[in-house]
Every structure is written in structure tokens, then in C-alpha cells.
Amino acid sequence: MLSLVCPLCQQPLQAEDRQWRCNAGHNFDQARQGYLNLLPVQHKRSRQPGDTPGMLDCRQAFLDAGHYLPVSERINQLLQQGQPHQLLDIGCGEGWYSARLQQALPDTGMAGLDISKEAILRACRRSRQIQWLVGSSARLPVADASVDALLCVFSPWFAGECRRVLRPGGRLLLVGPHEDHLLSLRQRLYDRVNPTPDLLGELPEGFGIVSDELLRYPLSLPATDLANLIGMTPHSFRSHPERQQALIESGLADLQVAMRLLLLQRH
Fold first, then answer.
1. Which of 38, 119, 127, 149 is the most exposed place for a label (fewest CB within 10 A)?
2. Per-residue pLDDT tens for 11-37?
3. Which among 97, 128, 118 has a CA at the least distance from the CA of 37?
4. HSE-CB of 155 using CA atoms within 13 angstroms
5. How large is the average pLDDT for residues 233-258?
6. Backbone Cα Rg of the chain
């Protein structure tokens, strides 16, 4: 179990039955579903931050269909190398990657954090062995130098926070889109395809690169799964619905996954 800190004052949190307390008197109740909400209202940018229920429905169906299994398998292989004792999945969503990683690392203390309460509720239904947290990746409610590994798949991350919570020698695995990821899909949805933001940019202070690799493979999707792929991404509200429907009806013969997996290590 992770060493948690109060999101309001950063003092250590201690569990008493289903309530977590710090010495300053702040209390946080563990929900009956098993998760702990450590996202104070003053740290929210909206009433319901994170992905919408519709996006979560689509992503859960798409991932459960196995289309990103090669990505999950490679994540598990890379993180198994370090044999972490404590691992946190930042932006874990509904917990698909976390749950598969927990099966690959059964002796690792596993936790998943997401800013979306709805996503964490779904994650609780996926696994009871993982410590699920509602919280912000910008203010991780985790003690300094207490985590051996961090995973971040298609989610925001903050170098300073990651460096703070990782132990010396701890590893951070970033997974995100290469510029070719789902390129044919984007070309059909938009008149102009915007460049894909770089996964890393400059190497942050205090980190070194362990490995940097590209995972590429073709993706053949029936109409339902293609609709879920569009629906789980920002393309669902950034592109025209008419183009989305036309693409779902016609299908895509040249769709390709291109994921970058970048493994960093804290000095």
C-alpha cells in the first residue's frame, strides 16, 4: 500500500477503519466501493473533471476487446525489469492497464490514480487488489521518495511531482502516441492533421533515459470497435459527426497503431 499524504497540508495520512486522517485534523472517508477520494474541491477545474461517462464506456469496450493488448504486454515487460515494490499508475482511467499489470507483478503493491471519480468507480469493479485513488497528477497525494515505479499512459504528467515521489533509481514509463499513431483515421476526420505533441520534449532534470522504443502494428476494426475508438478520444468532439459516421460505415483498411514507450530513471 502506498504511503499517502494529505492533499491539503501534505502531512502523512493514517488509516483508522475506513477513515484516513492527518495530524492537522483533515479526514477522508474511504468509499464503500473501496476507493479513496483525495481530490479536494478547490483542486478541481470543473465540477466533474476527467473523461465523460460516454468516453469511458467507449474506452472500456475498446480495451476489453483486446486491440491494445500488445501495448499492455510491452508495458508489463518493461516494468517487470525493475521489480518494483510499489507502483503507481497515473491517469489510470478505468484500470485496464493497471489490472493487467497487477497480474504480471502479483507481488508489487499496485495503485491507480485518476482525476475522474467515474473512472475510478469502474476501476474498483475491475480489481479489488489495487489501491484506487481519486486525485490529481499535478498534486500526487503520495509521500516523497516512496514509489519504485510510475506508469503514465496517454495522460498528463508533471516531471517535478514524478521526481518527488520516486525513490532514487525509480522508473517512470511514459506511453503515448507517435506522430503516425492512427494517422489514417485523423486524415479522414480532418481537413488538416495537426502535429502530435512530443511525448517528452526536453529531458527533465533528475532523470536519465533507460530506453526509448516505438511499437507499431496494424489494426483491423469492425464498425462497432471503430466507433468506440473514435468515441474514447477527443476526436469524438473535435471532428464533425458526419465525418465520423461516414468513416464508421466505410471502415478503414490501413489503420495502424504507433505508440512510443519511453522509460526514464530517476538519478
1. 127
2. 999 998 889 999 999 999 999 999 999
3. 118
4. 27
5. 94
6. 19
Element (H, E) at 56: helix 53-64
Tracing cell 473523461 back to the chain, one arrives at: 51
Q: What is the pLDDT of residues 30-82, one digit of tens each?
A: 999 999 999 987 655 656 667 899 999 999 999 999 999 999 999 999 999 98
Cα→Cα distances 4→24, 111, 182, Å: 14, 11, 38
Tell me the C-alpha distance between 60 and 185, whole Å: 20
SS3 9: coil
Bridge-based pairing state of the strands 86-90 and 109-114: parallel
Three-state secondary structure call for residue 148: strand
**Cα(213)–Cα(170) distance, integer angstroms:** 19
Q: Report d(CA 71, CA 219) in Å as an integer.
A: 12
Q: Quote the distance between the C-alpha of residue 233 and its chain's center.
A: 13
Report in angstroms the alpha-carbon separations of 71 from 33, 46, 75. Answer: 29, 31, 6
What residues pair up with 256 in beta bridges, in sequence order?
218
The 10s digit of each residue's pLDDT in 188-219 is 999 999 999 999 989 999 999 999 999 999 99
Cα gap 56→118, rounded to integer Å: 8
Reported as a single tens digit per residue, the pLDDT across 129-184 is 999 999 999 999 999 999 999 999 999 999 999 999 999 999 999 999 999 999 99
Q: Distance between CA 242 and CA 230 in Å, rounded?
A: 13
Q: Is 19 in a helix, a strand, or coil?
A: strand
User: Which cell is 160 given?
Assistant: 517535478
Amino acid at 60: Q
